[in-house]
Amino acid sequence: MTDQRTLAHINLYAVLGALENLCELDGEAKALLAGKKPISIGISVKGGPSGTLTFKNQKCRLDDGCRPDCTVKLPFSSCEKFNGLFDGTTTPIPSKGFLQIGFLLKVFVPLTDILSKYLRPEPADMEDAEFFKISTILTMYVAAVAIAQIGNQDEIGRFSASQMMDGDIQMGVKGGPYATIRVRNNRLVVIKKKPDNPRALMEFASLELAAKLFSGEVNALACIGNGEIVMGGMLSIIDNVNRILDRVALYLA
Q: Residue 246: what pLDDT?
């Protein structure tokens, strides 16, 4: 079972949040933003999350909350309507910044199309080494942030989060990239870099292994058994992270 409110948090913070990394990694994404004036898109979901995407200097940043001074505002009447943006059943109408519709259609939508190409890759595309690398990195960041959102919003995920002690959890691929899942008072937040002093860690042997894990091609327990996944520190924390990770696939399917 999944719920629409949790999915809305994942879609905003994990999926659209990956635009930050896409604009760093993909040349086509950078080219779309070349020469563009700074612009911010505020997203407000009734009964759900809100955030502001800022595009500046060919980079993207997602901040929590819909800023009053955003250039464009996209309001959604419900979590279901916002989630419909991702399956093509909802067409957003700006309540502010309608004159910036050109940016939405010619830059923002193409950026999300590129992101979707990486997050739902065709098998033939994954044969290209650079595409494979970017796809796997983006997927790892999406999965990490989704863990945090499920731990904070989903009923089953909140139970697992309630069993976690405060501290930083290191999640990543040997040699990078890494993400920090920070636990404070049973609330989870993700920082997209390696922690200085992790209380627990879960490290994949390679990008190839990470890609197979995220696509369900290999079993995590088997990889732990043969040493392809290294776990350390407070294993009770990792156990609860893995319980939440099991639910990530349900929401991102």
A: 84
224-241 as b/e: b if 16+ CB within 10 A:
eeeebbebebbeebbebb
**8 Å CB contact between 171 and 179:** yes
Query: 4-119: what CATH class?
Result: alpha beta
CA distance linking residue 171 with residue 164, whole number of Å: 16
pLDDT at residue 54 in the model: 98
Segment (H or E) for 127: none
Strand partners, 180: 170, 191
Output the six-digit token pair for 164: 């976690």
Distance CA(87)–CA(100), nearest Å, equals 23
The segments of the chain whose pLDDT lies below 70 read: none
CATH superfamily for domain 143-252:
SCP2 sterol-binding domain (3.30.1050.10)
Q: DSSP letters of 19-53?
A: HHHHHHH-HHHHHHHTTPPPEEEEEEETTS-EEEE
Question: What is the reported pLDDT for 196?
Answer: 95
Whether residue 50 contacts residue 16, with contact meaning beta carbons closer than 8 Å, is answered with no
Share of the chain above pLDDT 90, in %: 85
Domain residue ranges of the chain, discontinuous segments joined by +: 4-119, 143-252
d(CA 57, CA 50): 23
Q: What is the pTM of this model?
A: 0.94
